[in-house]
Structure to design on (298 residues):
């Protein structure tokens, strides 16, 4: 069986499934050492009930298939009969990959990230806070998308935390597309949210990991930006950016995840960015935002 090879999020991945979302990270030749194997399994949901512990996460999605994530080094996918390839990959590159990051002790956060010069800024928020819409507005005005949705951060013992580039697409709602003047015709629809679309972002060159200049926690309200510090900053980031938080306790990763987030908060300024909840205010909101992050390094 043919394998595809990807250098993704700092890991060397060999996959029995082609992953077009990772095309930018594809390597033409095998690696000497493999960090993660993605394999096709022949079994289906009869393998048993969901399993979730420190070393294994198994789950079944009727529209996609059965997934088994093991010891941070292997994902086995058994597609459901009649499942489309994009649906199978949706959960492979989402829930399964996120669980694998936790198994490996990596910091995986639910954020949107754009490049700002030689570094990056990240946006997080609870469901409906508009982090993807903020990133899309910036991309429409020339900023480069680094990552959207599930993002891997590296909080090293020394130096500034870095974020790894990810899939070059934005999941965006129909009203946001309309407000940005983007046409949804021909776009792939989200399988479970038919009013949400996958907008492809063209990258002319490969992105490398970037240091994180700032993290903005998004809220609705009067326009403004204020600094979050200490325990309050940590709690807000954990609340707003944790990916699939329900996985942490059964995996024994709660304390480790908080520790990784704490080290992030200690080294990266955290800001609360509030703005009115209507598109007419978007231009003024983004003007304030871009002016603010430019001041951070001036």
């Amino acid at each position: 069986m043919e394998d595809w090879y990807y250098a993704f999020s700092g890991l060397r991945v060999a996959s029995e499934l082609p992953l077009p979302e990772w095309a930018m990270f594809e390597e033409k030749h095998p690696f000497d050492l493999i960090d993660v194997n993605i394999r096709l399994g022949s079994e289906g949901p009869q393998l048993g009930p969901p399993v979730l512990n420190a070393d294994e996460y198994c789950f079944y999605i009727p529209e996609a298939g059965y997934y088994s994530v093991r010891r941070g080094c292997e994902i086995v996918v058994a597609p459901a009969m009649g499942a489309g390839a994009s649906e199978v990959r949706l959960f492979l590159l989402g829930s399964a990959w996120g669980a694998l990051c936790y198994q490996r002790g990596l910091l995986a956060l639910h954020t949107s990230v754009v490049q700002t010069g030689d570094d990056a800024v990240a946006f997080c928020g609870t469901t409906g806070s508009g982090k993807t819409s903020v990133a899309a507005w910036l991309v429409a005005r020339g900023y480069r998308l680094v990552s959207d949705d599930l993002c891997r951060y590296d909080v090293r013992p020394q130096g500034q935390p870095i974020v790894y580039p990810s899939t070059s697409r934005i999941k965006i709602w129909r009203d946001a597309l309309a407000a940005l003047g983007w046409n949804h015709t021909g776009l792939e629809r989200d399988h479970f949210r038919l009013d949400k679309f996958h907008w492809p972002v063209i990258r002319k060159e490969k992105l490398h990991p970037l240091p994180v200049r700032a993290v903005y926690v998004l809220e609705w309200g009067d326009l403004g930006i204020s600094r979050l510090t200490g325990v309050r900053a940590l709690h807000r980031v954990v609340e707003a950016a944790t990916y699939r938080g329900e996985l942490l306790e059964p995996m024994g990763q709660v304390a480790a995840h908080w520790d990784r987030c704490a080290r992030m908060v200690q080294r990266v300024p955290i800001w609360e960015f509030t703005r009115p909840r209507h598109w007419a205010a978007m231009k003024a909101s983004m003007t304030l935002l871009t002016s603010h992050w430019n001041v951070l390094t001036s």
